[in-house]
What does this fold into?
Amino acid sequence: MHLPPPSPPIRGFLLRLLARLTAFAPLRRLILIKLRRDTGIARLPELDG
Amino acid sequence: MISTLAAHFREGTDDPVTALERALAAAERAVPDRSIRCLVPDAMERARASTQRHQQGAALGPLDGIPLVVKDCIDVRGLPTTNGTRVPVPAAERSATVVERLEAAGAVIFAKANMHELGIQPTGVNPHHGTPVNPWDGGRIPGGSSSGAAVSVATGIAAAAIGTDAGGSIRVPAALNGLVGLKPTFDAVPSGGVARLTHDLDHVGPIAWSADDCAALFEVLAGRTLERDVAVGTPALVADLFEGADAEVASAVRAAARECFGEVPEVRAPVTAWASAIEFVIVGEQAFQLASDLLRNHAGLLGHDTRTILRLGGALPPSDRRRAARARQALTAELERLLEQHGLLLGPTTGTPAPLLHPLARRLGELDTRTMARLAAQTFPANLSGLPACTVPCVREGLPLGLQIIGRRGDEARVLAAARVVEAKYPPRRPPRYHGGERVKVTHFQKA
It folds into this structure.
């Protein structure tokens, strides 16, 4: 399986902060870069359906 | 177990009212476990009617009088469907189609079960209503999102439960609690009156102690009869589903598969190996669409993790959605091709036994993409393809693990036939934390 690379879990204060930051579009786009990397979405290949 | 209870009802050695009293007593003892969210007020009335039918020799079928719980994303008339949130919602005006079908078959739905908020993660952690206690080890997550459904069955409160599964939410908690869970073929079971996480990944299905119990429930949920004497043939192990799984999980599941089905071949499914990334995109996009009103009007009442996932999911670029949609088609074609050849595909249900529950996660939730994928990467392919899949316990000691069986579209009969082969070698085990047994006076839920 192409699993997400290890990244530290987000909990407590960090999670609260992240939830607040994602309410703002420019910051959301920045955080999305990390999410796409952490979930393997950025590496998803182009495949023929 | 449903089959045992039904036999006792038939023989007159037990009756639905007594069975419900035992279930309510167990629910009362299990209040600190947080697996049950609320009780269904007219359950005793239904149990009395069922008892009368049994006394008159006019039982409606194998589910008549069986005490069941449903996940709290399924409407039950007169009760709010919280969907795991703390957002105030009015009581449902009518029951979900699956509840109507079960009640028409005589089942006694007596409680609604706790769940992960919106069903959006496979851990079962819920800071709003409390996290159901894993009966095998209270320091670990229960699995989700049908967490309360699985825990209430494993701890002896309910004979079986109805859950939903958009990425493993029936199979993951069933596996971590030592139970059998069936995610049927997409659209085999009607979803009217069920709150959905996504448009086309959600499935309604049973969690129970045995494949036979799952079959009895599926027949009523889907409104069709399953053939019982189906040849299992020689299934194949999907090597890619073992990659990334813990070594102990991979070796236990391989050993169980070989013990039950002989020298099974291993096949490759390279596109299936991308299931996590594909699922994250599709759930992200569709959950954001379906929960947009909730996010707009009640963001402050949602968990920090849920809010974050929804907002980020809604921000994924169209190029990701396009790639995920094409990869999903390729994944479905790949699995269908393998199933044409082998009939059934096998793999682990989860890549790990139940992970530890962090105290901060219990209080506020958590965002842990790695754990999400280790729990559900193996279950995602059956949601993405819509193929039927079940989990069945496959270890004899220690924390429970599940063997996953994936079948051809509409072939639930063969999937459950294979599950019967496994459970004959790996019989169900009762967890250390168990509440079934005698009746007690029910007080807690009357106040709730």
